[in-house]
Amino acid sequence: MYFLDKQLILGVSSIYTQKNEEADVINVCFSVCERGSGFRQLVPRRLVAHLRYGAGEAGRRIPLVEMSRPSSDLAEFRKVFAKAKHIAIITGAGVSAESGVPTFRGAGGYWRKWQAQDLATPEAFSRNPSRVWEFYHYRREVMLSKSPNAAHSAISECEARLSRQGRSVVVITQNIDELHRRAGSRHVLEIHGSLFKTRCVNCGHVAENYKSPICAALHGKGAPDPNTRDAKIAVEDLPRCEEDSCKGLLRPHVVWFGETLDPDILTQVEKELEICDLCLVVGTSSVVYPAAMFAPQVAARGVPVAEFNMETTPATMRFAFHFQGPCGTTLPPALERHETEVI
User: Which family does it belong to (predicted)?
Assistant: First the structure.
């Protein structure tokens, strides 16, 4: 089996951060291409070794294998696609960005005067739950106004079509906007959670919640303008748990900086990556860990990996294919019905 130990992934994802990404998750400063240069300063040598090698039978370590320059030949990719039985599609913020979803990254990636990593932490929520809920209320309301784009649709249509042929497609997404589900994808693993789920800090109950606004006190709040003042909503007026009269404070059910990923979700991801015979990496910068490790691990066991992105990434040279451009443009022709499909 070629896959990093799940406890290692959980441990690394809960300790090391790089505060320059938009996702509400832990980032690890590790460039796959540079084989850990700069990373050694942050991670003990033994962890670098684990990240650079996979586990073979009887604990034998398998070095990650460099691949030749990736191909951009769509016809060749289509030949591989036609034969694939289990396709894993890993998606990131680039897919959602084409639907107009704010990514909260880079120089302009602010909500008021804060970036996501300033608000998306357990500590921030503990200090100022009202401000954090304003931020997530704004994001929820924005998402309710957005629609899936051509890339989302191509993936969902491909899944539905191939399922009738006894083939499978799984979406492993870092996005928390549920656009894949809204596009019709059924087999979706949301490794960072969902904007439209809440978790009670008291009883732990997780529930879907599509209310707009999520509570009366947040109505009209959450404006992103830097001159907007905090609403300073009383804690008792923020979203509360409705499970068995619990009334505990709710929080967004997303993975925040400093938190580990759900081990059950990671187990499902591991199983899917073990059986996939084709992997697509769509709209992701391949620097957010542990998700950035997934596709290189698949490639290292000889499975074709195709990257669809606006630019090259630290992992590009490990993949068999690279298609540069908007995902909504490059992905549909790659996933459309192949002439050999009988259904």
Answer: Belongs to the sirtuin family. Class III subfamily.
93 known ligand binder: yes
**The domain over range 6-97+148-192+260-335 is classified in CATH as 3.40.30.10:** no
Q: How far is CA 147 from CA 100, 104, 143, in A?
A: 9, 19, 8
- Kindly list the distances between the CA atom of residue 85 and the CA atoms of 2, 81, 276, 297, 306, in Å, as whole numbers in the listed order: 19, 9, 8, 19, 15
Domain coordinates in residue numbering, the chain: 6-97+148-192+260-335, 116-145+194-254
Whole-model pTM? 0.83
Contact 134, 120 (CB under 8 A): no
From the candidates 137, 152, 192, 322, give the one annotated as an active-site residue: 192
For residue 205, indicate whether it is catalytic. no
109 annotated as belonging to a binding site for a ligand: yes
pLDDT in tens, 144-184: 999 999 999 999 999 999 999 999 999 999 999 999 999 99
Q: Is the peptide bond before 314 cis (omega within 30 degrees of 0)?
A: no
Domain 6-97+148-192+260-335 and domain 116-145+194-254 have a common topology:
no
What is the tens place of the pLDDT at every residue in 73-114? 999 999 999 999 999 999 999 999 999 998 776 556 899 999
248 is in an annotated binding site: no
